[in-house]
């Protein structure tokens, strides 16, 4: 806040594995600015009492000391910034106003300016610290030690000492220190602190285990698959830290206004003093010019959006949703249409074979074996259902080729096989059976051998039990819901009716979903909810791409605008409502900030308000903006869901710092400083987040580390993330993998 046009000072890294990063003061009375403001307030009161007692000279000296103590929080940094970098900002304006007031003999007013400004600055620092507690709470889920087995002997090691391949022993009630795969034992896992879902998950050999999960059953042995610093939990913290840095449209608006505003205020104040002196008493108009400097300072505007973004994204991460930056947060708050994929989103994603119908002369096991031969190497949920039913002894087919949106074909023992949906394969004598099974809500695939249909296999993926409630809540937010699926019309409509969805589009290829989205949107903002892989074209086309059940899925977490970590569909209305509320708070803060500036400037310039009154109103507005922004840190938890703990604890794992550093608030995003890279051989540590216009959390002024802006760039070609890559429709859809890393489009 000290300088609206100055990037944050670099924060000091803490060397050594396992070091806990500095998160600033735990209590508000530990904030340096607030401590100095309190001392200055006591001195100012003492000076006033001494003066009333008749010792005017001593009283004035004490008041001057109060002004000096209060100014110590921002004057030195402002002067260094002005002399070293030839930059002016909010701190510079306040310094000029304070020095000018002292020069004019208004020492109590100068002290009051410094006290209130320091209070507002201290409250901002404390607010930033509070909003980061969610990240620290997530990191504190990692236990201080882990037990590993080597040659049958148990060893206790620190989490950072775990290496892939280690055998980790997890007893009942213990938390997992990193990711792994369960090799022996069965248990129930409590993932509530990570996914936001309170129902334990049954797990056994072959199932994945994520860092921070609580073992709620028997002892299990887990094969470590990732270092603690690279675990899914560490990745969440890293992504949220980067996301909090990224600017949205609201932040860019605030920056656009604040960038020219500071020098414009200097010019305005000079004009008030100069022109006024020609018309009347020079000292009177110089005093009014100083009041204008304070009245027009964009302190509240500078923090109106970034503090809200940090608070909102931190809160969403504690409720099982990762929002990838301010732009995604704002766009999410504008969504009016949601398109849902069926498989894995509306359904459990655990389909089962419910019926196998064969033609004359073909037994059921032979038909399943033929289908499984084609599906042997597929990871599609329907394939897994067929493979599970067929049994373990499967002979894979040769020359298997996938026909996108239709099925598979290959050869087995010299016979040509095809497996696919009706329409691509003619059901022939099984047509009536296929129609009956589809009417029951099942997905039917046909098996063909040497151009003759031999069987129909019905697979059904049950609707998630919470889906109807989630759809009802989305409609309660005024959001239209549509279902998009590649399944047949009968199955799609049957499942949609259970969920309460009336708009259904079935038998779609992946590219068809992307083409259909603009029609569904009808000019409104639309979000696509899918698995992050098969629905990549649609996720890229939508204003917001939301990956469902992304815990442990690198591609989904890295490429989606929003990643829902759990499998409960109610996370969707919860995060949409939270984003809408956060966007409202942003707009309120910007409106209040601009209104205060617009009202105070004419009143200050005409002498209606004096310095003390303007200072009080100005800093009160800033406190209101801070308090309003903190509201975004509160999110409503829906019944059946939960939030990560908000209490803090020691961090027992080193996590790589974000490779993106916020640039100068007065520079375009493309001119941000180079990424931070940890020195070779040093264990990286999660660094405290720094905000534009915010001092480092330890109390250092932001102006101390201010750098001049690089040469300006064309504002139409700004990078969307730390990578500096442009985002547009062409690059999204032509990416080789069909995936993307972007901030949402502004359409």
Notes on the structure:
Helix content is 44%, strand content 14%. The protein has 25 helices and 22 strands. α3 crosses α4 (90-103), α5 packs parallel to α24 (611-630) and α15 (364-375) crosses α16 (381-390). The chain is elongated.
> Describe the biggest sheet?
7 strands, mixed
- In the sheet with the most strands, the strands line up as 10-22-21-20-11-18-19
- Give the overall pLDDT as a whole number: 77
Uncertain segments: 1-22, 659-747
* Percent in helix: 40-55%
User: How many H/I helical runs?
Assistant: 25
Outline type = elongated
What is the CA–CA distance across the termini? 32 Å
Which key features would you list for this structure?
single chain, 747 residues, alpha+beta, seven-stranded mixed beta sheet, six-stranded antiparallel beta sheet, 25 helices, 14% strand, elongated, disordered C terminus
What is the structure about, briefly put?
The chain is an alpha+beta fold. 44% of the residues lie in helices and 14% in strands. Strands 10-22-21-20-11-18-19 form a seven-stranded mixed beta sheet, sandwiched between helices. A six-stranded antiparallel beta sheet has the order 2-1-3-9-4-7, with no helix packed on it. A six-stranded antiparallel beta sheet has the order 12-17-16-15-14-13.
SSE layout:
Elements: H1 32-52, H2 56-71, H3 75-85, H4 90-103, H5 107-131, H6 133-139, E1 146-150, E2 153-157, E3 167-170, E4 180-184, E5 187-190, H7 192-195, E6 201-203, E7 208-209, E8 214-215, E9 220-224, H8 232-245, H9 249-279, H10 282-296, H11 299-304, H12 306-318, E10 321-323, H13 326-332, E11 335-341, H14 342-346, E12 352-358, H15 364-375, H16 381-390, E13 398-403, E14 407-412, E15 415-420, H17 431-439, E16 443-449, E17 452-460, H18 467-476, E18 480-484, H19 489-499, E19 503-505, H20 510-521, E20 525-530, H21 536-541, E21 544-548, H22 554-559, E22 562-564, H23 571-605, H24 611-630, H25 729-734
Parallel strand pairs: 11-18, 11-20, 18-19, 20-21, 21-22
Antiparallel strand pairs: 1-2, 1-3, 3-9, 4-7, 4-9, 5-6, 5-8, 10-22, 12-17, 13-14, 14-15, 15-16, 16-17
Helix pairs in contact: 1-2, 1-5, 2-5, 3-4, 4-5, 4-10, 5-12, 5-24, 6-12, 8-12, 9-10, 10-23, 10-24, 12-23, 12-24, 13-23, 15-16, 18-23, 23-24
